[in-house]
């Protein structure tokens, strides 16, 4: 039975698989399989069955529930697996003794000012999830983390009293002013919301506190509560402000020190604009590797997404989802999930307001015009489309175990005497083991300044005139039969299609 299955709160009492000395790692919940992950992630809408009897105002009000609809996709499980392993990496070497040793190092450095000797632990996880706006990065990360308890309370371990609160993850928004103090206060505020402490109030009362003193205080708090992962959302805010104030280096230095000295994992989340900063800083290149997400292609993933969404129609007349309509919506949304949902919602609103009570291409174009949606034809950076991720569950059969009836099997053994037979008890056949394999059809290449090229948008339809079958007497068909100028002119002369002139 899985741990914390029946818990619906963010705070749970610790449960250990085996008490082997690493209570923080042992208290983590199990990694979910794809089927159970999909079941927890999906969010469906229950519209009333008597839609025909509802007033236009009521039906338009029901459309607001579309913002809560969520369709799980394979790339989301890949992201969930990455976040889980990031937390597990933090706790891999974070035993109680190791935590006290780290805490003493920072405390002694703060009090004495001596040079710090970092002789403990391995480096924690550090990566980034960047993508096109509206693709669902923040909502996916929040839903992935919601499948795990945020706070685990330890009270007893190995028959000894041991009380501490373990914070598995925090989600913090990057400050718009790119300030070290502001980000530190945001992290303290997130800790207070998680465990009900008052660190933010205590630090805020010290008006003259320096950035270095606040940073040291934050490091000690992070280790006291054994924070596994901090997700820094909207990291592109740092990029935009850094261009004006040139304050990027102090913020990045603060995050790097926080990761190295506390063994706390860091995951940056934002748009592809953040890649500019990451590629300019050499020490950030290896710390910010991760997913670079592009919109859906016009493929089976998009068809499944739009077909499921199309069932939630609140108009009196149900519109059929034709191939042409799917292509039109794709072209107007560029395959970005947030735009698709917004267009579908606004198109129904316009159809109800106009009295036509049916989704048409005209109502869709009108919705796009009202919403002011303009999608780019190319993307500035390379990446992987969310349609290219594939997660498969494969059952491996046990090799070398034969099915034999009875309680004993006979195995011939030639250790002592070839004529002797050794009788061994039957070993029960182990159950097949399920393993999750995560793969991408197209591995994202690591972009560099020399190799980065614009990525074209995946259009639904080819631009230009459609190719048609040509007549056998067409000039191009005649040329392809024998691509020689001499033969071509002979045929033209035969049909009197050329004239000779003497000069």
In short:
This protein has 503 residues and is of the alpha/beta class. It is 41% helix and 16% strand.
* Rg for CA atoms: 31 Å
Number of strand segments: 15
What gross morphology would you assign? globular
Quote the beta fraction: 15-25%
Low-pLDDT runs of 5+ residues are: 115-121, 401-428, 430-435, 440-452
Average pLDDT over all residues: 78
**Cα end-to-end separation:** 97 Å
Please count the helical segments.
19
Biggest sheet strand line-up? 5-6-7-2-8-10
Helix coverage percent: 40-55%
Largest sheet, strands/sense/barrel:
6 strands, parallel
Main structural class? alpha/beta
List keywords for this structure.
16% strand; 15 strands; 503 residues; 19 helices; alpha/beta
Characterization of the model:
The chain is α/β, with parallel strands linked by helices and 503 residues long. The chain has 19 helices and 15 strands. The protein has helices at 23-26, 34-41, 56-62, 74-92, 96-112, 137-146, 180-195, 199-204, 211-224, 236-245, 248-262, 274-280, 282-285, 300-309, 323-333, 337-354, 361-371, 475-481, 485-494; strands at residues 11-13, 126-131, 151-157, 160-167, 169-173, 229-233, 265-271, 290-294, 378-379, 384-385, 389-396, 408-412, 421-425, 433-440, 455-456. The protein has a six-stranded parallel sheet with strand order 5-6-7-2-8-10. A three-stranded mixed sheet has the order 1-3-4, with helices on one face. Helix 15 packs across helix 16 (337-354). The longest helix has 19 residues, at 74-92. The chain is globular and about 105 Å long. The relative contact order is 0.11.
């Amino acid at each position: 039975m899985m741990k914390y299955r029946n818990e619906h709160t963010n705070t749970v009492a610790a449960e250990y698989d085996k008490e082997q000395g690493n209570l923080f790692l042992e208290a983590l919940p199990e990694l979910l399989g794809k089927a159970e992950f999909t079941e927890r992630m999906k969010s469906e809408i229950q519209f009333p069955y008597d839609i025909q009897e509802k007033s236009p105002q009521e039906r338009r009000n029901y459309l607001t529930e579309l913002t809560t609809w969520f369709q799980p996709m394979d790339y989301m499980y890949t992201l969930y697996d990455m976040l889980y392993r990031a937390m597990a990496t933090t706790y891999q070497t974070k035993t109680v003794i190791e935590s006290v040793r780290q805490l003493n190092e920072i405390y002694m450095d703060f009090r004495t000012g001596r040079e710090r000797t970092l002789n403990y632990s391995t480096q924690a996880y550090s990566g980034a999830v960047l993508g096109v706006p509206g693709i669902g990065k923040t909502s996916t990360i929040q839903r992935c983390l919601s499948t795990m308890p945020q706070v685990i309370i330890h009270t007893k371990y190995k028959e000894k009293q041991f009380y501490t609160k373990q914070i598995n993850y925090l989600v913090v928004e990057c400050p718009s002013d790119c300030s070290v103090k502001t980000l530190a206060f945001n992290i303290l505020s997130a800790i207070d919301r998680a465990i009900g402490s008052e660190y933010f109030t205590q630090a805020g009362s010290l008006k003259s506190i320096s950035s270095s003193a606040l940073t040291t205080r934050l490091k000690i708090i992070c280790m006291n509560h054994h924070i596994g992962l901090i997700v820094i959302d909207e990291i592109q805010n740092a990029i935009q402000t850094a261009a004006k104030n040139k304050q990027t280096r102090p913020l990045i230095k603060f995050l790097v020190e926080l990761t190295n000295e506390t063994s706390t994992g860091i995951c940056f989340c934002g748009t592809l604009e953040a890649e500019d900063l990451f590629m300019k800083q050499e020490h950030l290149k290896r710390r910010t590797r991760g997913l670079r997400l592009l919109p859906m292609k016009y493929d089976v993933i998009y068809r499944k997404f739009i077909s499921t969404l199309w069932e939630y129609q609140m108009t009196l007349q149900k519109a059929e989802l034709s191939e042409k309509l799917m292509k039109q919506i794709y072209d107007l949304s560029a395959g970005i999930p947030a735009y698709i949902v917004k267009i579908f919602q606004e198109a129904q609103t316009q159809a109800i307001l106009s009295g036509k009570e049916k989704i048409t291409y005209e109502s869709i174009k009108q919705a796009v015009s009202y919403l002011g949606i303009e999608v780019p034809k190319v993307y500035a950076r390379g990446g992987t489309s969310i349609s290219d991720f594939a997660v498969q569950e494969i059952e491996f059969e046990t090799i070398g175990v034969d099915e034999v009836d009875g309680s004993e099997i006979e195995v011939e053994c030639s250790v002592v005497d070839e004529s002797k037979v050794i009788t061994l008890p039957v070993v029960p056949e182990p159950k097949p083991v399920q393993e999750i394999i995560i793969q991408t059809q197209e591995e994202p290449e690591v972009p560099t300044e020399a190799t980065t090229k614009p990525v074209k948008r995946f259009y639904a339809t080819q631009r230009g005139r459609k190719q048609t079958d040509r007549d056998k007497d067409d000039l191009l068909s005649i040329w392809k039969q024998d691509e020689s100028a001499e033969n071509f002119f002979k045929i033209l002369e035969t049909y009197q299609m050329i004239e000779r002139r003497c000069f």
